[in-house]
Specification:
Layout: H1 14-29, H2 31-56, H3 60-85, E1 88-90, H4 97-130, H5 137-146, H6 160-167, H7 174-203, E2 220-222, H8 226-236, H9 245-260, H10 263-269, H11 274-289, H12 291-305, H13 311-322, H14 327-342, H15 347-353, H16 355-368, H17 377-388, H18 396-420
Antiparallel strand pairs: 1-2
């Protein structure tokens, strides 16, 4: 992703920092104000960056490139949200720890088939209903860790960064072949941690009777026609030409799903457009304001990485920035930097000579995307649905402090020590 653009002034990254700061602190310090004005903040700061690129740099190319990426992102995430919202899964059970672990593992596998967005949107409501009698924030956070992020590490469909790698020439099954052990390790450790926490919480919980639980009404699958629309969405991912045909197919599938789905199914899911509206607005600001940060990263990454960087450098570098930037463009920036550092003429040569570094970039982008709400698109959508269900979700800072550091970071360290340390 090398664009012929003047180097932006480092001060142009200030709006991005302000937006991240507002997203982290405003919901805690001024929750009511943030709910009323987050759109103005996102659009205002994004507008400042766009004005700088238009009037200061006269750089239309990166704006067009970013706009195309944003439209693709919102169409994919929004389309999967609408289609999955037309599928109602009735679950039977009371959310016991072992059953919960099995549910999350199935979700992690499905993330490689439906994508993390599709799997998360399909399963988050049944997950909440299954655990409704003792639902806690950690249920949602571990769902984000496993189903919405780490689970989708085995196929290009699984997570947007891996799909971008596929478009760069990485073979479809290459990631599964090289990353399956890391996937199994990360998912296994996260499920073990969840089982320990969930077992501890269950022992301190007074259970409601199964008859009072909506999750005990039996297994049901409603909205079967939406499976066809879901297949259209997944097939459209691989359509590259002509421009915007992919997005058009996804939009058509979403509209078809919404029009044909029975109102009773939408009502059973508590479906409305607020979660995707919030994601679309906030990520509009993120995509706009992060343009200078990504340009700076792509320009200076070779200097920061050195001449012979280890796979761990790519793992931690891609990972840490994927938790603050959207992980898809961060993947591309580091992939381009590796190509330059390695001097590889094509992707096939790069995969032969620097396979471990590509693995580090791939796993870092996917796994670290779970660390914050903005690391990966499904995270914010899952949070928005949980907020609608009146689950007291942690703020941006609380997510990092209470969950990502004590639970996710040790898993990331073990993956590095076991597979990517020199």
């Amino acid at each position: 992703m090398h664009l012929d653009v003047p180097v932006p002034n480092p001060w142009s990254m200030v709006p991005f920092g302000l937006l991240l700061g507002a997203m982290a602190l405003a919901p805690v310090l001024a929750h009511g104000w943030w709910l009323r004005h987050y759109a103005k903040v996102a659009f205002g700061l994004g507008g400042i960056t766009l004005a700088y690129y238009i009037f200061g740099l006269h750089a239309w190319e990166p704006i067009g490139h970013t706009a195309h990426e944003y439209v693709s992102f919102v169409t994919l995430v929004g389309g999967l949200y609408v289609v999955s919202g037309g599928i109602h899964l009735g679950v039977k059970g009371s959310g016991r720890p072992l059953f919960n672990v099995a549910f999350l593992f199935v979700g992690a596998v499905l993330a490689n088939i439906l994508g993390t967005t599709g799997a998360a949107m399909l399963l988050i409501r049944p997950w909440i209903r299954l655990n409704h009698s003792r639902i806690q924030p950690y249920h949602i956070v571990f769902f984000i860790f496993t189903v919405a992020n780490c689970g989708g590490c085995l196929t290009p469909i699984g997570d947007p960064p891996l799909f971008l790698g596929y478009l760069q020439g990485v073979p479809f099954w290459w990631v599964a072949e090289h990353c399956w052990a890391m996937w199994l390790t990360a998912v296994g450790l996260l499920l073990a941690l969840f089982y320990a926490v969930d077992t501890w919480h269950e022992r301190r919980t007074t259970w409601t009777t199964p008859a009072a639980s909506p999750a005990a009404s039996g297994w049901r699958f409603e909205g079967r026609a939406n499976v066809i629309f879901l297949l259209v969405m997944l097939g459209a991912v691989f359509v590259n030409q002509p421009p915007f045909l992919r997005e058009g197919l996804m939009l058509a599938a979403a509209i078809g799903s919404y029009v044909t789905t029975r109102k009773s199914v939408h009502a059973a899911n508590g479906f409305n457009f607020h979660p995707i509206e919030e994601v679309a607005i906030l990520f509009a600001g993120i995509f706009a304001t992060m343009m200078p940060a990504l340009a700076w990263l792509e320009l200076h990454a070779p200097d920061l990485l050195g001449k012979t960087p280890s796979p761990g450098v790519f793992y931690w570098g891609t990972g840490l920035l994927s938790s603050l930037l959207d992980n898809a463009p961060t993947y591309l920036a580091f992939f381009s930097s590796l190509t330059g550092v390695a001097g590889a003429p094509d992707t096939a040569s790069l995969l032969t000579t620097h396979a471990a570094a590509v693995v580090g970039i791939s796993v870092g982008a996917v796994f670290f995307g779970a660390a914050t709400y903005i690391g990966n698109g499904p995270n914010f959508m899952v949070k928005a649905i949980a907020d609608q269900e009146k689950i007291p979700m942690p703020s941006f800072v609380e997510l990092v402090w209470k969950y990502s550091l004590p639970f996710l970071l040790p898993v990331l360290l073990i993956v590095w020590l076991a597979f990517l340390r020199p």
